[in-house]
Queue: 2 jobs
Job 1
Amino acid sequence: MKLSNGNKGHALVRYDDARSIDTLTIQQGNDETLLMGLAAAGALHHLKQEYLTRFWNSEGLQLVIVCGSGNNGGDGLALAGLLCADPDRYPDADINKRMSVYALPPKSAASQFYEAKLRRQGVTIRPLQKLSEDVAEMVKHNELTIVEALLGTGQSRLPAGDIATALQAIDTIRNAGRAKLVALDVPAGLTESGLADSAPTPDCVYTFGSEKAVTALIPGLRVRRIPCGFESQNEEAVFAASTALYRSEPSDALHFFRRNDADHKYSAGHAWMVAGEHDMEGAALLALQAFLGSGGGYVRHFHPSPQSRERYLSILPSAIYHDATDFVKACEVQKPPRSILIGPGMRSDTVDSLREALIEGLTILSRRQQRLTVILDAAACSLAFDDRFPSVQCLITPHVAEWKSLGGPAVSCVDDLEAARAFSGRIHAYLKGPVSFLFAPDQIAVYNAPLPSLAVAGSGDLFGGLLLRAACGHEADRPICDIVSACVALQRRSAESSMHPEQQLKFIQEILA
Ligand SMILES: NC(=O)C1=CN([C@@H]2O[C@H](COP(=O)(O)OP(=O)(O)OC[C@H]3O[C@@H](n4cnc5c(N)ncnc54)[C@H](O)[C@@H]3O)[C@@H](O)[C@H]2O)[C@@H](O)CC1
């Protein structure tokens, strides 16, 4: 997998990939016990910094470690063992008063090793089934941290039996309001088919090695990646064998909107737009203002209703306006743009009435401008699936309902990702939601940093204008994934300052000035 550029992100692994990495690493002489110990040491380091800062100084702080029978449970046992010998403890501290361990009998030799080590240190290991009986006592604690090590990447079905009962107990303790929950590697109940209803969402996941794809799909879930002794060449080999899947993180991407001293209006960014029918001019105006406000140099705008002209001219005289009926002619005779945005503020019947002309015009433009990028939003996304749509770099930006109306498969879990990527085929599809996805021909990117202030009318139009700008600027040759990431990062930065797109636009102009 290649992550180009300043597009900051990290690889996501599926459960099968995680098992392959484990197997290869162990085959090369890294003993399972060693890996488990390293994982536990990393987890303890962060736990002490984040949840157990005053553990040895505060009698009130309690830790509960809940372990399943697999190696995930082994991680929990190893963690408990390390805490017993933590150099920060008081010599006479009674660990059994501060830490409770509940566990199923461990299956692997490595887990059994850590269980025996824990017993040697005098720790009481209670049967997992006892957890439910102790709930009433636990909810009384003011400062409780629960480490959940019930199931890891070995889970392939919904929690059942003792594991399901233990999860319910954890949920009850959480609902009492005061306990923090940290899951090791992945939360129990989180399979690649989704999150079990009964599974509590942790405050944080301490994952071992690369992040697992499952956690990247839970909105806003905090995931800390902890090295545990895997070998990089094994991870690379496993990544290379499957469709690249990564989590994109907002990064500083202002260079996508940069202007040069020698720029003229075309070299600064030359784009076209077809958008904003009568009474929906606001959407087009917001996209136009985002384009110009983020550094675009020249924009030609085609509007479906002739009576909109006065409104456009009175609000934004710096764009060049045409009736949409002029589109084909313009494609034949005008200087072709580098990028074109179609769709903001257009209903599906309007798109349908313009369909022939749009396809014909785009076909002409694609011959005249080899490096054209077509961005389709809202109802116009359907153009990309028209058999006559020209062979041109194309990005669609539907939200979930629009994606569904295109026939796109639901995307709610890891198992859904490949079907969605196959559906978008040669097109790039940025599916907008609290967790957004970019499906590209050779990769899938997950954008998981929900920001409630982006859930407002106009956000999509502003985003469209930024995309239009970045796709015709000095970095227009960069992969679409990088262009999308740059726009996501810039819009997020602006949305942290204000809830309203108009205000966000002002902020964007300030930071780009
Ligand atoms: N082998 C390695 O290289 C490393 C593995 N590590 C840990 O090992 C974990 C994987 O260990 P395992 O493969 O043992 O898998 P798990 O620890 O997920 O446990 C799988 C066990 O639970 C049972 N099980 C699966 N789904 C269940 C369900 N829904 N309800 C009840 N029982 C269920 C299975 O029958 C199996 O016995 C990782 O997630 C990670 O935490 C770490 O120690 C780091 C290194």
Note: Residues 22, 25-26, 32, 35-36, 39, 68-75, 107, 151-161, 163, 184-185, 208, 228 surround NAX (CB under 6 Å).
Job 2
Amino acid sequence: HVLFTSIQDLKSSVYIESDMVKALKTYLSGEAVRIDKLKRFLNEVDSIRHSDRLDDSTEDYLDNPINAFYMIRRLHITWEGIIASTLTLENYKDFLSRIRTPIISKKEDFEGALDAILRLQRVYNLTIEDIVVGNIWGNIAYQPLCPQNCRVIGERVLQIGYFNQAQKWLQYVVNLNARNNDNDTYDMDLDESLAYSYFFNGNWVAALEKIQSILNEGDPLRFTRMNQLKHQALMNHQEGKEGIVMNRPWDDPVYHKLCRGQQEIQQPSSDSSSMYCKYTHGGSFVLLLQPYKMEVLRMDPLIALYYDVISDKEIGVIKTLAVPKMATSVTIGKDGIQTPSTDIRVSKGAWLKDEENVVVRRVDKRIEYLTGLSTLEPDHAEQLQVVNYGIGGQYDPHYDFKKDVGEDKNMVDYIHASQNRIATWMFYLSDVDAGGYTAFTAIKTIVKPIKNAAVFWWNLLPSGERDYRTLHAACPVLLGSKWVANKWIHNGGQEFRRPCNLAPDKGDT
Ligand SMILES: O=C(O)CCC(=O)C(=O)O
Ligand SMILES: [Fe+2]
């Protein structure tokens, strides 16, 4: 059928055309809304970045965990959300192709940031008010947490099972809402979360009251759930049950106290005070003319700190080699209540081989001279492990030695069964603005990271047995970031090579 063959057909085409005009108008106004939305978003981000002075003080900016949280939130939620929902698929692909590293929305990143903030609050005893304005020891965030983000935090902390902390956050948000609006935006989900936090805390009366007020709203979707909770709360109340207190290895109050710098035992009550702060050449000729300042922080078990034992230049080279190899360090599985996704070890690490670079070889040799122990890879020592901790980054209390076979499968994977980590040498490749101590929880001793220094300790007793007093942790980084490099030295054949100045526990110093 061709149009010009009949006037009738041509007439109908008038209507067809007017339909098309209408459709195009609708399409265009839709596009205009989209463009408008994108423009508004762009202006907002621009003004935030500008007011946060994100172009000229980026490094300092990310030192504050609340700023870092906002950055992650923007990248992984705001950007992804607006772009994915607003651009067409074709344009989205084009958009991604223009970015150096495409953004991938990772829920774990955002949750990890939330968990980090909550962990910092617990370990360092920070108030909600401090967290909200990002007041970390006087360093204030550029923008305070908005009520919506506080609420996200409250929900998250409930989800990971810190009920006392959850109750405080949720109550804070409820109060905030009450102050800000005139109650016509009653948030029942929030109330329900609060009810659960009362419940798990064992605040039966408060829980029952909250549950009843929710039931009074008459929402059929909550009816069964709230009635069951009410029933359970009544029973628990009658039986005098207590709430649930989360107690994971990294929740150890002693660990937290040490991280806050409260060290009960200051110095070892030792016989040989001459051991403190002396210059050492580790029993080797090579360094006779170039002694290093060593401080014995503790005698038995020995913890020794070497100052200025790695140069800024060497640190620069090691970081440069490590950065492209960095991968997120091991995380853990889930149990009933969600375990914070990244609490056991929050850091990124990379292994550097001796043969890879002359600087790596040089610092390894230095360890040999100073400890008298061979760092020959792979038999006598592992490769240098470079680790970077970011916001809230930590490593919960652990031993460096390999446990009995069967105790920990992961350890066996990378250490041959006949080898164990006789000693740990750890370089501090950075200072940390706040937090990030190395804390020996069993002997209540802390080491504050000092750039260019290194800490040394024996993991095994002279007899070769495991020394369980070496339980230690990396405290969460509160401000800034932390870099270390571990050298784990193995016992294979060198149990008897302990130099006298590093073997005070043998009594032959
Ligand atoms: O970073 C620290 O302070 C300790 C790290 C540590 O213990 C480890 O990596 O095994
Ligand atoms: Fe360790």
Note: Confidence is low (pLDDT under 50) at residues 268-277, 330-336, 411-417, 504-509.
